[in-house]
Amino acid sequence: MTIPVRPETDRKIDELLTVYPMKGSALLPALYLVQEEKGHLSEESMEYVASKIGLSAAFVAGVVSFYTMFHRKPVGRHHIQVCRTLPCALSGSDDLMAHLKGRLGIVDGETRSDGAYSLVSVECLGACDRAPFIQINDEEHGPVDPAKMDEILKRLEPR
Amino acid sequence: MAFEPVLTRNIHRPDSGTIEGYLAAGGYQGLRRALKEFSPGQLVEEVKNSGLRGRGGAGFPTGMKWGFLPKTRDKPRYLCVNADESEPGTFKDRLLIEKDPHLVLEGIILSAYAIESSLAFFYIRGEFHEGYRIFQKAVQEARAKGFLGTNILGSGFSLDIIIYRGAGAYICGEETALLESLEGKRGYPRIKPPFPAIVGLYGCPTIINNVETLANVTLIAERGAAWYASIGRPPKNTGPKLFCLSGHVKRPGVFEAPLGVPFLELLNEHAGGMQHSDRPLKAAVPGGSSMKILPASKCDVLMDFDALAAAGTSLGSAGGIVMDTSTCMVTALLNVARFYAHESCGQCTPCREGTGWFVKILSRLERGDGRPEDVGLLTGIASNIEGNTVCPFGEAIAWPVESYVRVFREEFEEHAKRKACPMKTTAVR
User: Do residue A138 and residue B129 have CB atoms under 8 angstroms apart?
Assistant: First the structure.
């Protein structure tokens, strides 16, 4: 098969295969590497990772679908995750979510057609002292009220 | 005697988190001392004598857990650090990892020495991007200074550490699910026995300890078991503890206090009291969302393993969630149920199906489509889940359902009777 990733990603996966006492452990880190490059994990990418580690593509797809941080479809350049679990809910995360839907014109779980934003409510992010708490890609923000959210959005896509 | 914060002693230093700052504050002295003065077996004894109980949720005595390793040495032994902090209301391990990673790392090195393991895994929750970067740097710093690697401080003991990122799954905080995930699989908990101390990671003897537990090992090595055992409520609830408070409080945060601190002291002094002066306390969960709820009238409790067990709940992860009188308990429980329905791994039928049922029933109660028999149905399903699943996730949802309904039964019945929510809700639908 053709290699669907950049040569340095392929090399990094080869290195991962030597790190763990059993090479199966390389799966999650390898998926992260491919997702970092590609933005999401396509069937082709999963088949590629499976063949690198010596697993079936079905096994890899099963692992990918188990974990919320692996994306099977493209997400936005700014992937906004809004925590909705109890402490955030007690602090107004539903208002924040409603505000974001209105501002971005997309629903929970959707990626905007221009590819700039995706919006998803997620379960507890472990930052309940900063509720309501959100993550945008790997950046953390909290507490975030609608006014603060507008400031953040302005910074992300100034126009 | 005034309590001296020790787990959080470095977090306010401007150089907190760097190895220079940690060394300047006396860091790695416990490791130096232990490698010189203790054999591995003696260090296990020291930890046993301290009375340290696991800070992840179950409160199992750490030294005793270590003692379950087989005496035979035909396989490698592994130490796995559970840094997959995910219990709603809990953010204390995050604080340690981000603000004082070397306190944790020193505890890892000490614990690996005690259990005679030369390879440790640090399984960190995938969403903790900042913690991952910080801990990676800490490991590099420690390696450069000779606290990790071959022949640590000339002791003959060698240790390497692998940082492994989770990828978004609450269940991987359950120790056997964590092992599965670390092996590159779906995080399905394993049936116990065999316990991980006998058959763990890659089929080898494995000890899994929580981040805060390991930070405590550093303190024990530094100051001794007798000092440690004098803190808190000896003999069974010893040592300092990190308590999280969130929800309707003025100053949510992580607070260090001795085990056995009164809940009301945490709430009123540490967290500044209730958020709104006109909305008094209605209920609180002392130990993360999976523990049983206490009504305000029963919140005059001491925060430790045994006092909370006597009060009919548990210390759990010490993630206290505070709710004021504006909170609708049906909505709050719906939120909790939705969390567990989302996070159930799906392996056991009672949990997979039961959590979905909870969401359905609670949604219709809240919406105004509830039926009078729904309230009993909730507790019936909870009792069918409890004790009937591979892992304690079943209890983690059965306990809140059983306790919310028991304590606030009238409010649940009112929803069914009126066919409407009688409250102004603050929690999400």
Answer: yes
